[in-house]
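Extended Data, panel c. Modelled sequence:
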Amino acid sequence: MNTMKHMTRILSLALMLMLALGAAQAVQVEAPTRTDTILLEGQEETYTATQYADENLIVWYDADNFAAQPIDGGVRLQLIENALPGEVALEVLHVGDTQAPSVERFAQEQAAMQQQGWVLSNPFDQPMVMGADPAKGVLATRDGQTMELYQLIQNGMTYHIMLRYPTEAAEGWGARMLHMAQTLNQRAE
C-alpha cells in the first residue's frame, strides 16, 4: 500500500513537471522585429530585421538569411544557405571595458591574422554606430576571402566586430553584414 502511494506521488509530480514545462514553452516570447532598409549597389532593399539580445549586446539581423548562434561574449550570425566559395559570417563580441587589455586584444587579433597569412590594410576609421566614436578597422584578404575587423568603443564598453566573406560577395553579403553590425546596441523602436 505504501508503495502504491509512493508511485502515485511520483506520477503526480511527473505530470505536474510535464505540464509546467509545456506551459513554459508556450510562454516563450518571440524576438522583436522591425523593417530595415539598406542601400545595395545603388538600390534600396527593405527586409525584416530580428533583434538578437543578450546581457552584452543588442544587434538587429536578417533572420531569413542568417542564423544567430550565441558565443562567449556575443553572437555569431552565419549565412544559412551559402553557395559561395567561402564562409559568410558576422561575429559581434563584447570584449570588456576600455581598459588596456581590451584595446590590446585588437592588436593581438591583427597579429594572429598576419601569422595565418592574411594581408592587412592600413588601419582606418569606420563610422559604425550613431552616437559612438568611429570604429578602428582593418581589412584583411587571403585566397579570395575578405575579413573586416573592427574595434568599437561605445558607452565605455569595447566590442570587436568581424565580417568574413568571399571577396566577390563584398557588395552583397559584405554590405548586408556591415549594415547589421551598425545596429549594435540599438533598442527596439
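The mean pLDDT is 87. This feature is highlighted in the accompanying rendering.
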